[in-house]
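Quiz preparation item.
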């Protein structure tokens, strides 16, 4: 009796295995032993060939029936065989293995295996940047961002967003072959303001006063970052570079509101007429300031 390779054992199955069982076993074993996952491993390559040969036979109902008869009786004689099965036909006999190069080329099982892998490939995340003006970042709100592939995605800018902040939009990235989508990561880039400097949620700006205003004190009306008018009391004797703190006038986010720091710059006249100089000096001496 001629020995016949046990294809059921090759796939870790029994003769009662269903077509679905055979397909699942093949996929699992082919993934495990595929040469691309085991480079340079001759044993894995040989095992992969065995798995592929077993699946090619057992997945075809006609070939499987003929193979089962041969396993039981040791020969295809008396059963008519079938074309290409090695039972009197011209095809390859059971137990013979096609050259591996054929499996890498046009073999339908090879294509089936990798099509299955592609269908379950992980979806791709997408990263992009969104440029905002200083005012846009402060106020937040809805906007659209165009992805590298040309698709537009609508998103909400967080109120008071900082430059460099990255947010994730689940399921808005690139789609996998099975329809699942990756995530979209958006990094915000906020333009600088000509008036305000931001540190965390606090804002800084400079207010210029004259030397006499710094000496005597004054009141100024300034505009905060949101366009609102705020009264600033500058005390007498304020020194150059001194900072005044206006609580709750900084950046407003959903979590907190920062403060506004007003730095005082003192402007000294560069030129005085002789009469102004004489009068200023006399007054200063009379008041004991010189």
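Solution:
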């Amino acid at each position: 009796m001629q020995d016949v390779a046990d294809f059921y054992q090759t796939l870790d199955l029994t003769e009662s295995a269903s077509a679905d069982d055979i397909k699942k076993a093949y996929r699992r074993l082919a993934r495990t032993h595929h040469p691309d996952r085991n480079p340079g491993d001759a044993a894995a390559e040989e095992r992969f060939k065995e798995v592929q040969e077993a699946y090619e036979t057992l997945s075809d109902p006609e070939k499987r029936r003929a193979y089962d008869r041969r396993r039981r009786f040791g020969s295809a004689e008396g059963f008519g065989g079938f074309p290409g099965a090695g039972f009197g036909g011209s095809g390859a006999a059971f137990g013979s293995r096609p050259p591996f190069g054929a499996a890498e080329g046009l073999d339908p099982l090879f294509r089936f295996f990798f099509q299955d892998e592609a269908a379950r490939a992980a979806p791709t995340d997408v990263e992009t940047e969104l440029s905002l003006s200083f005012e846009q970042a402060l106020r937040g709100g809805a906007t659209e961002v165009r992805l590298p592939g040309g698709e537009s995605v609508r998103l909400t800018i967080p109120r008071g967003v900082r430059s460099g902040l990255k947010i994730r939009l689940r399921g808005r990235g690139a789609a996998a072959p099975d329809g699942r989508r990756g995530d979209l990561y958006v990094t915000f880039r906020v333009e600088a303001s000509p008036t305000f400097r931001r540190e965390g949620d606090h804002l800084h700006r400079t207010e210029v006063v004259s030397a006499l205003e710094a000496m005597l004190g004054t009141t100024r009306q300034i505009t905060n970052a949101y366009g609102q008018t705020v009264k600033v009391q500058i005390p007498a004797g304020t020194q150059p570079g001194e900072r005044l703190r206006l609580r709750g006038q900084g950046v407003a986010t959903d979590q907190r509101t920062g403060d506004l720091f007003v730095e005082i710059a003192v402007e000294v006249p560069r030129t005085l007429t002789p009469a102004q100089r004489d009068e200023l000096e006399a007054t200063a001496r009379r008041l004991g300031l010189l």
